[in-house]
Every structure is written in C-alpha cells, then in structure tokens.
Amino acid sequence: MRKKTWRLGLIAAAVAALLAGVLPGAQAEPVRVAEFLADCTPSHRLPDDPIVLPGLPGASHSHDFFGNDSTNANSTYQSLLGKTGTCRPAIDISSYWVPTFYNGQQIVDPSIVTFYYLGEGVNRPQDIKPTPLGLKIVAGNAKATGDADSSARWSCLHAGQVPPSKNFVTCPAGTQLETYLDFPQCWNGRDLDSADHKSHMAFPVAGGCPATHPVPVPKLRMVIRYPVSGNPAAFRLASGPGYTMHGDFFNVWPAAEMQRRVRDCINVVIKCDINGNHG
C-alpha cells in the first residue's frame, strides 16, 4: 500500500510539473533581456522646458537636466549636435530632464540615474526600429491631480517589502527613494513632435503597436534614485506631489550607434553593456 501511494505521488508530481510547463529534472529556460542603457549624472538645473515651452526661458518649473550640457529653452536638434554630455556612453548626447526634487526647501540631487532602452512591451522585438533622430517624447503628467491621472511610480531601492505607489513612499533607513517611468514606444512614423507633445506617440496594446502608431521603437525606461528615506511628508517635486513626476527625452543619439544597438541588442534579445556590447 505504501509503495502504491509513493507511485501515485510521483505521478501526481509529474502531472503538476507538466501542467506548469516544466518537465521533472529539466532546467528552466533562462530569462532573456533585450536592453542597452545610458548611465547619466546631473548636468545642470534650469526653469526651462525646450519641448513643452520652447523659446521661453524661465517659463517652466525647475528641471534637472541629464545628458547634453547645452540644453535650455531654445534647444533644437541642430543646437544639441556636437555638444558634450554627462552620460556613459559619452556618445549619447541626448537630453533628458525631470522636475527638481525637494526635501522641504532643500534641493536633493539624484544619486543614480539610468535610462534603459528595452525590447519589452511588444511581442516581436525583432520588429523594433531605431529611435528616429530628433524625436521628442514626454512621459508622465506634470498636471496630475491624483493617482488616477498619473503614471508615476515610486518605491524603495533594496526594500522590496514596501509596495510601489504613484506618490512618495516611506523608505526604511539605509535605503533610497526611487522612481521609474516608462515612455510610450509606438511612433506614428511621421512626426518628431506634436501639438500636445504626446499624440505622435502611443503605448502598445496587447503586445503590439496600434495602427495609428505602427512603428515600435525601444521602450525608454527612466530610473532615478534619490538619497532620502523616512517620512515623505516634506518631499515634493517642482511640479507638485509625487504623482506629478514626468520626464522628457530629446533624442540626439548618433544614428549609426542607435541603429547598431537596436540591431545587436534589441532585435536579437541580448542584454548589452554601456558600450552596446555583449559577452
């Protein structure tokens, strides 16, 4: 009877493994990541926004700029070309910016800033095209009035027990507050910008780009860490509460380098390093 029970147990385990898609003794398929990235440091701080308020210096709330050193309210693709930046790889002289972070009246500089270019979001990463030169993308909602109209995400670095939120969270001592924001990755194939600075881009639907925005480009994910923890009551952004977090991107990657990284990292689902290489 004991032998029969043992055999029944083995059969049940095998059936459960088959239902789970894993054969007994088989190794799980390794997770593949399509990615290249840019690590950046703060470049400068200005009350400018060359996408939303072009040609109007001082008309915006304060922004922290990363990447291209020259970015200001009057920046154009042509003016950004040939400049230097604060990203690794240095060849990325794109411009990135977010609202300035405050703890009470004190400005807090980010400690870690990474921009990931990902092959996720669409079911066929082999169809992803290089981000076009001069493309402008805005993510998040600077005018959000609450969680319902926000796409911001806040969490704690190395503190997974704290659930993410659209507003600031209380991080344990010794950790850091972090925010991440995904930019839309489906382009309409025509316009580098639009009147509302959003309509020329869209998010994928069910793993594919909508017919109105048929061109998938790498998904840009902004990840920023701030060296603060504890009670977030005094935290704020220049644009308001945490749910107003937003980011802007002005693409000035050299065309050949963007194309190489998309071909060698994204299309073939490879995790590449800072230089766009893999082992």
Discrete helix count? 3
Number of strands: 17
- SSE order in H/E notation? HEEEHEEEEEEEEEEEEEEH
What is the total number of structural domains? Answer: 2
Our estimate of the beta-strand percent is: 25-35%
Q: Mean of residue pLDDT?
A: 91
* Structural class determined from secondary elements: alpha+beta
Global shape: globular
The N- and C-terminal alpha carbons lie at a distance of 54 Å
Residue share in helices? Answer: 10-25%
Rg is 22 Å
Taking the sheet with the most strands, its summary is: 6 strands, antiparallel
Which regions contain 5 or more consecutive residues with pLDDT less than 50?
1-26
Strand line-up of the largest beta sheet: 4-1-8-15-11-10
Q: What distinguishing features does this structure have?
A:
globular, disordered N terminus, 2 domains, 5-stranded antiparallel β-sheet, 6-stranded antiparallel β-sheet, 279 residues, single chain, alpha+beta, 12% helix
Protein model, in words:
This protein has 279 residues and is α+β, with helices and mostly antiparallel strands. The protein folds into two domains: 1-30; 32-266, no CATH class. 12% of the residues lie in helices and 27% in strands. The chain is built from three helices and 17 strands. It has helices at residues 2-19, 77-80, 255-266, and strands spanning 35-40, 42-46, 63-67, 87-88, 95-99, 101-103, 106-108, 112-118, 136-140, 154-157, 176-182, 186-187, 201-202, 215-216, 219-226, 235-237, 246-250. Strands 4-1-8-15-11-10 form a six-stranded antiparallel beta sheet. The protein has a five-stranded antiparallel beta sheet with strand order 2-3-5-17-9, with no helix packed on it. A hairpin with a 2-residue loop joins strand 6 and strand 7 (106-108). The longest helix has 18 residues, at 2-19. The termini are far apart. The model is unreliable at 1-26 (pLDDT under 50).
